[in-house]
Amino acid sequence: MTRDNGSYREVAGEGSKDSLSGNYLLYLLKNGRDKEARALLDWIRDSMHKGGGDDPLSGPLLPRFWTVGDTADPTKMKWAAAALVADNPAILDMIADLRTAWENANNDDTRMNFALLLATAYRTAQDGDHLQEIATEILKKYPDSYTAIGFAGKADEYLKKWDDWKQILDAQLARHSSDETLIRMKVAYLETHGEWAAARSALQILMDKGKATAGDYDRYGWSALFDNSVNEDAVKAARQGVTLTNSSSFNELHTLASLYAAQGKTNEARDVVVKTMSMSNLAVPNDLLWFVFGSMYEKFGIEDAAIEAYEKVNKPEGYIAPTATYLLAQSRLKALRSISH
Fold this sequence. Notes:
Elements lengths: L13 H17 L3 H13 L27 H12 L9 H9 L4 H17 L3 H14 L4 H14 L2 H14 L4 H13 L3 H13 L5 H10 L8 H13 L5 H14 L2 H14 L7 H14 L2 H8 L14 H16 L1
Helix pairs in contact: 1-2, 1-3, 2-3, 4-5, 5-6, 6-7, 7-8, 7-9, 8-9, 9-10, 10-11, 11-12, 11-13, 12-13, 13-14, 13-15, 14-15, 15-16, 16-17
């Protein structure tokens, strides 16, 4: 998951390959190459499994729209392609047609499948009003579904309906107080609301129970940068995140380097940055690592260099997560510029 592009949503990986395949499918369909499109769909679907577990709505969307061996119906293939690109901008041009298909669905299962696809599309479009509309229908039928709760919470986030989001989560946690997924959803709410200490307290529950993942430890440490509470607990959590990922995850290493820099441990920060660049095959720092350099320059008292480094942290396209490195860089730029004036 990544903190810089959407509240720890899934990082580009297998899903991004599916998204690229979806874009190519749309290209094939647009150019009348249906036979190739069907073959590609069968190939992707053959290695993809339906969701399972406690949440009946979990899992990839494609299996809801395509089965290996389906006939090369252009409309059916179009929806299958939409299922693959639901998290990228290509879906935006398909929303009107998806909504029509949802409204005209001839049975409950079909309507729910289109509701899930349409909700994902509205989430990508950051359309809080319409996402709330669809999420309400999904949540009514599946009130305990993490997927449904997630859609409802994201709609409330876009609409800044903090009380509604909190009410949904608190009601669920009152019934399932130790549910790890719900606790992480509560952490996301608290981060979005700027309640950093409370977010760490919620993560501490997972840590105390031995249920914390590397991402949870990373999240704990990273949050300390937002309320200037970098201490040994934050650094210890970040180190644990690095350990659990065998020093092979950019996010965890980036957090640790940032915390060291904030503490003025510039040698340690530099060493972690070098390791991060080597692990990531970077010849020069990327924009997120420039944040660490900016923090180090600040500790050295080289304010001009710090400003230059922070300015290299790029603004994310579209949605900006409340935990984005960009926001930290902007905060430091504001502080430094106010001092210089």
